[in-house]
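dude i think i finally got it to work??
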Amino acid sequence: MNAPAFVKEAASWAQPHWTRGPAGRETPPDLFRVLYYGWLVALTLKLLGSAWDVSWHFKWLRDDLAPPHLLNSAGTVLALALTVVHGYTGYGVDRTALRLIQWGTGVFLVAVPLDLINHRVNGLDITSWSPSHILLYVGTFFMIAGVIRGWFMGAPPGRERTVLLGAFFAFFLENVHFPEQHQEYGILSIGAWDNNATYAEPILLRFAAEQMGRPIDRVMMTGFALPVPDVLYPVYAVVATVAVLVVARMMIGRAGAATLVAAGYVGFRALVWPLLTFTGFPPSAVPFFLVVAGLCVDVAFAVRMPLARALLGSAGVTAAVYAALAAQSTLMGSVYGLLTGHEGLAGAPPLATASAVWAGAGLLAVWLACEWWSRRQPIEARVMATATP
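look at this
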């Protein structure tokens, strides 16, 4: 079938569905699948663009029309089209999912020109942790959260539902972890400098040095590659990214779900690593520790309630608190131990050991919040959250 014929057939299929309606209206199964596979394509394009983007910015001077930006923009255009379809027809989403998608897409679209203005005013601004960049992540956060809710609430039970829910959570994990790639690329760039090599092109180094008012030396390189406090990487990794794995395990409701979500993201990072480095782009440290963190989350879910019943004779709120405390302690020891080994063997951002206090407190608070949230969901969601094979 040639392209014009395909477009004509697709238009004739879609035309009867193009009617205005409220969010939550009954959606034909084939249309529901088309919408969410469309989201899968949109998020894949954004993922490929963002994976290339960080490496690009550690090599070349920033360019608004750089190939990674264009690839990411293609995914954004498709996401915007899907947002319009959901909003106009009401198909494929309930009211909450629609609002999350609309607000997320809106925040992202507002953040794009703000980021361009920020670069015009502040120059290089390479850090992933700048306010305009964080706004991009926040928009994507709510967008994917809406997609997850829409699929979770509307997809029929079965293997396809579970697999796509895991895939959407892997995209969600990538977005949450994304700013930490600055340190993951930065630490290896510092190592290259110490070995009398550089990954960045001379034009980028000169621009960064002029902006900092320094010669091209190690102090400048450190400010360029590791511009944030050392405590940020481990604390954020433990509190934010592990929280995603906890919620993924609750919503997918299958043993091993957190491990598979983490392995999917880390596997992608490991796959693109040689693709980037063999084409001349800078390498990054790969967060393999997230796979073990996911495994610890799955183990905690497997033993938390049976253990609580054995010790307390109950699986209620008090048991959930004890279970969360035990899981938090196990995860803290595992993640910080892995980061320490990772730093020595394969390269990892500097680990501020004292930050474990803040990471532990944050993880416990987030885990308890997740327990509270899961108990307030409709009974169908609670059943899915606690189901095991």
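Confidence is low (pLDDT under 50) at residues 379-389.
im so relieved honestly
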